[in-house]
Amino acid sequence: MRSTLVLAIIFLGAAWALAHPYVGVLLWTWVSIMNPHKLTYGAAVDFPVAAVIGGATLVGLFLTKDKKNYFLSAPAIALMLFMLWICVTYLFSFNPKGSTDMLDKVLKIDFMILVALVLLNSKQHIIALVWVLVISLGYFGVKGGIFTLATGGNYRVWGPGGFIGGNNEVALALIIVIPLMYFLRELAAKVWQRQAWLAAMSLTAIAAIGSQSRGALLGIVAMMVLLWLRGRQKIFFGTLMIVGGMLLVSFMPESWHARIDTIGEYQQDTSAMGRINAWWFAWNLAKANFFGGGFDIYNPGPFALYAPNPLDIHAAHSIYFQVLGEHGFVGLALFLTMWGLTWRWAGWLRKNATGNPETEWVAVLGSMCQVSLIGYAVGGAFLSLAYFDLPYNILVLVVLARRWVEAHQREKKNDPLEMPQKNKMLAAETIEVAADFRTSPPLHHKRPL
């Protein structure tokens, strides 16, 4: 039944995308983030849903009469340069054959991000994308939170597969999406809706903590600190966060405390030491190879050359060292530039959209995108999720929102009814003078003698 339902949604959505390709973008995002076909047991499990949706969206892109915007933004240019660079590093990779599948996957994801920037234009599109992201991960967040409470936190929350199959990976995804839930809560008009969003946010946070991910916990702390710094009632919210955190921590079992305590005792934790070994491996590899080693470097050969402990083979477990080892220092610089620009553009939204009732929603979105980026920056320092779709969709939201604000400001500027008060007064004075001139009697000059 679930398999039939998912396939029906895919095919109907793909047909709709032929005429309105923005629908294909939203459908692609849903499939790539949530992987709903992997939650079934029938034909949908191995069906090439991404190929069907992507193909229909691209056909619609060339056939549609819907508005398309090829506006080039600084974050998008940085993304394209990063895409170009990983194609270059692929040519110099240690194992091009072993890197091909990952290169293909990453380029498809990033290409569809660029397609989203072309096809999504309106306020409705922006909010719809937020809804898709929240539904895709909120399902696992609410479900995982209920599971954690029901089991007393004795079992870890695991992901559905793909990029977020592990407990650490799904925890990072969940903390990134919580600020987007807050944004939708701010848009809600009814009290029960706002309460429902508050419950969903709380359960999602509990699910992230119930995953027993140390990186996600640090990410949550960083996000809460940022929210506290920006809040107005610092004493109230600071007390609320401390009390709520203490109650939640006291609820978790001894196994959770034992795992979290290893943050300060990493020298005795084999997992933590394995990550440090992988970080040194990535650093040494990048110093010795300008183009990095490509995607397929986590195997005995490269570790024997560059790792302090060649027998302790681990993935990078860090978005920064992952990009550094795979694409060198240039790749890391482009990666950091892309996210730095995205952060800066989100800050522009907070500054330039505040105070106007028509654009206030964009200011909230920009602020929440920055909170999500902080979670990704801190939590991602301990996870290999450099190519995960969700943060790149945050980039899309920021670029689209700024484009919308700038278009809105241009419309207001060109609207005579929205003329600044000073200009209105000047216009009124000009009209009054002209009227006086028309009603004045004609002047009679005597002919000079």
TrEMBL record:
Highest taxon of source = Bacteria
* Residues of the O-antigen ligase-related domain: 200-336
Q: Please name the Pfam families in this protein's record.
A: DUF5935 (PF19358), Wzy_C (PF04932)
Q: Which UniProt keywords apply?
A: Membrane, Transmembrane, Transmembrane helix
- Primary location group: membrane
Q: Does the keyword Membrane apply?
A: yes
Question: Which InterPro entries did the record assign?
Answer: CHP03097O-antigen_lig-rel, DUF5935, O-antigen_ligase-rel_domated, WaaL-like
Localisation: Membrane
Residue ranges occupied by any DUF5935 domain in the UniProt entry: 1-185
For membrane topology, the record states:
Multi-pass membrane protein
| Transmembrane parts of this sequence | 43-63, 70-93, 128-150, 162-184, 196-229, 235-252, 319-341, 361-388
List, alphabetically, the GO terms of the cellular component aspect. membrane
What's this protein's name? O-antigen polymerase
Organism the protein comes from: Sulfurimicrobium lacus
The taxonomy runs:
Bacteria, Pseudomonadati, Pseudomonadota, Betaproteobacteria, Nitrosomonadales
